[in-house]
Amino acid sequence: MSTKLNGKVAVVTGASKGIGAEIAKRFARDGAAVVVNYLSSKQGADKVVAEIVAAGGKAVAVAGNVSVASEAQAIIETAISHYGKLDILVNNSGIYEFGSIEEITPEHFHKQFDINVLGLLLTTQAAVKHLGEGASIINIGSVISRLTPPGAVVYTATKGAVDAITGVLARELGPRKIRVNALNPGLVETEGTHTAGVIGSEAETGYVAQTPLGRSGQPNDIASIAAFLASDDAYWLTGEQLLAGGGLR
């Protein structure tokens, strides 16, 4: 078990399943106390917390919609009230819906931008007042902003925005010695990609064929990189977009 996050406190949004859950568990194994945020899956978040606690770690679950300012604030305040500080924020909450340009509606647009972009901004805004020198913000983007596949214009746009926001905030928060990086996964096998019918589909076969390492990602592939970015080992990295897709780009 690593101790490189000993004494640190982390908030991971959207951590009841998939990549977020694995990041939360990895952070706890590395010594951090973790706030596990969820929107609807209390059962999933409680399971993540139970696994962390059973392994000797510290974690608490908190409900909250990151796209609502008061709820984003409450998520961050949970870290302060339970653990007294905040060192790491992982903006992982995200949704995706696909469709051709003819199928785009205002609802389709706002649903994704509210969670993927506005939610990231509101949660970060709530966090920065508590973050000090050496803190790390990790924004979960996607290689889709480089791939730009057809039928994904709005989702791709949200992840392009995440890349841009990461660069701006790295410069804005750099003087306060707060690091901001984007971690951009490729195709990852999660509950979400199974539910969406991606895993096992021709689309997955196509992406794997374009991936030099020859497989879809697993949540732990992303969590290990997040743990590095959260740690002092990454003290000289900020404003970066780390593509974590086995070479898919």
TrEMBL record:
SMART domains: PKS_KR. The keyword Kinase does not apply. InterPro entries: KR_dom, NAD(P)-bd_dom_sf, Sc_DH/Rdtase_CS, SDR_fam. Residues 8-191 form the Ketoreductase domain. The keyword Ribosomal protein does not apply. GO terms for molecular function: glucose 1-dehydrogenase [NAD(P)+] activity. Its EC number is 1.1.1.47. It is an enzyme of class 1 (oxidoreductase). It holds the Pfam family adh_short_C2. PROSITE patterns: ADH_SHORT. SUPFAM superfamilies: NAD(P)-binding Rossmann-fold domains (SSF51735). Keywords: Oxidoreductase. Belongs to the short-chain dehydrogenases/reductases (SDR) family. This is Glucose 1-dehydrogenase. It comes from Methylophilus luteus. The lineage of its organism: Bacteria, Pseudomonadati, Pseudomonadota, Betaproteobacteria, Nitrosomonadales.
